[in-house]
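Field log, afternoon session.

UNIT: design team B
ACTIVITY: writing a sequence onto a fixed backbone
BACKBONE:
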């Protein structure tokens, strides 16, 4: 056998360990679930998808427009700005923390 499986196995294990904490974090998963339910109809909520609404920014680019921690107040008070037909969205503190945690995983 000319193929050495050890380096491939070690690489796969290393990648799994590097990726698992972000995926397994229940706060981040809760944030992802919240944006899937409330935002995905218009916004791109992943790392390479496209916003369905032409005026809805992709979540992976939000930090280019706003400091993410500044969005906490907007979520707490209810987001009234955005694209013109964006529904009002008000979040509870634990939801805000989860959404921000998820958004942070998407930024460059």
């Amino acid at each position: 056998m000319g193929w050495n499986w050890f380096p491939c196995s070690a690489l796969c294990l290393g990648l799994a360990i590097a990726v698992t904490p972000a995926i397994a974090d229940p706060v981040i998963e809760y944030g992802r679930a919240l944006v899937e339910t409330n935002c995905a109809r218009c916004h791109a909520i992943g790392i390479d998808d496209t916003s369905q609404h032409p005026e809805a920014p992709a979540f992976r680019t939000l930090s280019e427009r706003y400091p993410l921690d500044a969005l906490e107040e907007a979520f707490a008070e209810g987001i009234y700005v955005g694209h013109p037909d964006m529904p009002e969205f008000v979040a509870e503190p634990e939801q805000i923390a989860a959404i921000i945690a998820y958004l942070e995983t998407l930024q460059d």
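LOG NOTE: The first helix runs from residue 5 to 24.
NEXT ACTIVITY: expression trials, pending approval
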